Amino acid sequence: MGSLRRGMEREIEQARQLFEKEFGGQPVAAAKAPGRAELLGNHTDYNQGLVMALAVDKFIVMAGRPRSDGRVVLVSPIFERRALFEADRIAKDPEAPWADYTKGLLLQLQERGARFGGFEAVIHSTIPLGAGLSSSAALLVASALLLRKLYPYRIPELDRVESLDKGDAPPMDDAERLRLARICQKAENEFVGVNCGLLDHISSLFGRQDQVILIDCLDMKIDWTPMDSETAVVLAHSGVRHELVGGEYNDRRARCERAAKALGVPSLRHVTLEELEQARDRLEEFDYRCALHVVGEIERVARGADLLRRGDRQAFGELLCQSHESSRHNFRNSCPELDCLVELAKEHPACLGARLTGGGFGGATINLARAEEAEDFRRSLASGYAARMGKRLESWICRVVEGAA
User: Fold this and answer.
1) CA distance 179 to 183
2) Do 179 and 120 share a structural domain?
3) What is the pTM of this model?
4) Domain range holding 389?
């Protein structure tokens, strides 16, 4: 725990140093938001299903201070171009599309009544780009929390943001955190153009140290269950950039919605596997396959929650492998590199389970391994991946951490 806290303090200090280099002087506030790893429940969130996630020790950290001229200046060492715009005239800039997440968040807050002026901020990230660990959601959440420190506000209702004239914003309870997650989701849907669900934003906001987040996306009930301390979480980046803006992610969501409509239900959460099979001839084949993946995945999460509570990590790990096979054969959101990583993982005796994590189409796999053999497991993955795919593998043994602050 001590080393984890020191790591987070180090990342905030790095953001502060970056701010001083870029702007001179010191920032007055900082906010950090973790990335997330989807443990089980692939593409179930926008289908009102069940999902399990982890907040992991890869972060977006933003440090900033107010400006008196009404301008917003954003700097990230990952991108050459600064983002510069007026706080009251927010529009897309094709030269700095990475800033669309913060811009979309600011617009959502403005539309709900928030009042704020200009500010300057640096964005420091330890989340690998394109790994499927949801750097986008972490950036949205970090933007919201930094602004809340610079220009305090509270969210008493989803459609209303109340700016505070004096003092700091009070701590958020779970209901307000959920409202903020929905605002972040709407920013990503409407301004960025990714028709994502709530999983990523909730995971970044609701993480608990050494706990699995259990989310019921029908009634937005959120619960937690302990993560077995003898099981290591290993993330392995395929090196294939995971891109969701436009393209296949939105296509898969549209197919799920079309299947639900053909079945006469509000979402695929309301369908059993038996009912889906009985109605198969009413669906286009690929729409059926997508629905089969989602409905099966919802059932896997329900079984998995019970297995975690019983401490049956072997059976739980098998669900991860089943999930990947369904992603590969039914939902078709895997790729050769992800398939190779899962096969390599299953060949190692320490492996309990492996699957792609996140939206797919590249990105990372999540692996559960016996903790005492986790380093050997990582080395084996790396050597096997280099031999079979001719690529260098980046991987991490991740700690499960608290949510954004």
Assistant:
1) 6
2) yes
3) 0.91
4) 227-398
